[in-house]
Amino acid sequence: MCESTNGSGYQLIEDCEATNRTLYKFYAAVMIVIFILALPLNASVLHLFIFKLKFWKSNTNNVFLFNLVLADVLLLFCLPIKAYNFIRGERRSANDTVCKAMLFMLFLNRGASIAFLTVTSIDRYFNVVHPGRKNLLRALKKSPHISIFIWLLLLPLTIPTMLKNFDCCNSHSPQPDDTLVKDVVDSMREVVFFSQIVIPFVILVYCTVHIVNRLRKKTVGDRTKLRRAVFLVTSVMVVFSLCFLPCTVARMVLLIARVEEWPEAWQDKAAVAFDGLMVLSYVDCLLDPLVYCFCSTKFKGLYLSNYFPFLLKDGHVLPDSSTGNTLPPPRNNVI
Domain G-protein coupled receptors family 1 profile: where (predicted)? Predict the structure, then answer.
């Protein structure tokens, strides 16, 4: 690995080494905190889906939500390795096999998390905006077929990212041996990265706007259900905007810095910012269970009765924050 530096004292970004050791140690500490907090939360939800809800027998979104939690759990196991590399002053593992395996796991499970967030929002959109209309998603959600299809679709999209220079943010960087094939591969990687975020974000905006409009036009009927749907999709929008949009913007700035051949010191600062915002995106693993699982009063009651029974009073769940009503404990394995 080259150890050359430029006149400003910054290492060349191609070295894949952290130029600010203190800052990268802070990134590592953040990832460790995320791992410590999110792992037991996701594991408890996963346990509930498998042993209490028996998600494979459910008629609701349980299959989607199970896959969402599964993707987050698998992603979490990458964080200690990533934190270890950052503590050592490495932006990625020096071991080629570990590096590619990490990239595969990070992008596959991150993409799956985004995909199942989006699919669940689409399902809620159809239930609220078009409650009587038949749709393919409603027919398939009762079986694991659509979930298997999503995982299989993500596999080939993950392959272009399994290269070390992607992890070190070197797409379209000027190289003496640049070829047309390299430019095509670089562009393909970036298309995959941006499409995994931009397309779901557009879908989420569309679903949110139409569900909110539906609530405004609703004058009679169950407005509480609609309010909960609005709370759900709005929360997803906030989480998505917080976790994924910043790193997308940072990636765009970094690509502009590459193509425009900014000074190496500025390119390095852009890469450091991108790494930090990628760490922020992992907070999604901590927020997903809170947004999707606990927005359901039935699931919340089931979760409390299994893991925090001391919060229950006389067989009743504590008042629901969204409605102010006291709800009985869940009787069915349905979210």
Answer: 41-292
* Higher local confidence (pLDDT), 87 or 316: 87
Using the predicted structure, report yes or no on whether residue 81 has a pLDDT greater than 50.
Answer: yes
Q: What are 168's two structure tokens?
A: 């070190």
If pLDDT is split at 50, 70 and 90, which confidence band does 14 have? Answer: very low
Domain 17-167+179-297 = CATH 3.40.50.2000: no
- Residues with Cβ < 8 Å from 66, sequence gap 6 or more? 46, 49, 50, 55
Spatial CA neighbour of 254 closest among 171, 197, 165: 171
Which ranges constitute the DSSP H helices of the chain? 21-47, 62-76, 79-87, 96-129, 136-140, 145-158, 164-167, 180-217, 223-243, 245-259, 264-281, 284-288, 297-307
Using CA of residue 236, residue 302, residue 65, residue 73, what is the dihedral sign? Answer: positive
Query: Please, which contacts does 38-44 make with residues 24 or more away whose CB atoms are closer than 8 Å?
Result: 38/72, 38/76, 38/285, 38/286, 39/73, 39/76, 41/286, 41/289, 42/69, 42/72, 42/73, 42/76, 42/285, 42/288, 42/289, 43/73, 44/303, 44/307
What contacts 296, CB < 8 A, 6 or more positions away?
Answer: 335
Residue 263 carries which DSSP code? -
In the chain, what is the greatest distance between 2 CA atoms, to the nearest angstrom? 73
Q: How far is CA 309 from CA 300, 331, 334, in A?
A: 12, 16, 19
Per-residue model confidence as pLDDT tens digits over 168-180: 766 655 555 556 6
Look up residue 90 and give its two tokens.
Answer: 């490495």
pLDDT computed for residue 29 by the predictor = 97
pLDDT tens for 190-202 read 888 899 899 999 9
| pTM attached to this predicted model | 0.82
